[in-house]
Amino acid sequence: MFCRVLFTALSCSALFIAISDNVPHWVNVLGWIYILGMLCVGILALKAEQIISWCDKQFAKKRK
């Protein structure tokens, strides 16, 4: 439960951190890294079936 609350707070505040001028540069960079990382996770989740089928094909090629 704690992790869910923590990641929800990070998700809600990352956008405001990324566009704010009142935060240190390293916090701004971490905010952008978090936003881009979550976008990548979302894309991977949407493409999961295609990725699994590609991995299965590669595994089948290696078996032969």
Question: Can you walk through the features of this model?
Answer:
The chain has 64 residues and is mainly alpha-helical. The protein has one domain. The protein is built from three helices and no strands. It has helices spanning 2-19, 25-46, 48-63. Helix 1 packs across helix 2. The longest helix is centred in the middle third of the chain and has 22 residues, at 25-46. It is elongated. The N and C termini lie far apart (46 Å). The mean pLDDT is 89.
Enumerate how many helices there are, as a single number.
3
Q: Mean pLDDT, nearest integer?
A: 89
The main pleated sheet reads as: none
- The residue fraction in helices comes out at over 70%
Rg on CA atoms, Å: 18 Å
Percentage of residues in DSSP E strands: under 5%
Give the termini separation: 46 Å
**Protein structure class:** mainly alpha
- Strand tally, please? 0
H and E string = HHH
Low-confidence stretches: none
How many structural domains in the coordinates?
1
Overall, the morphology is elongated
Keywords: Membrane, Transmembrane, Transmembrane helix
Transmembrane segments: 30-48
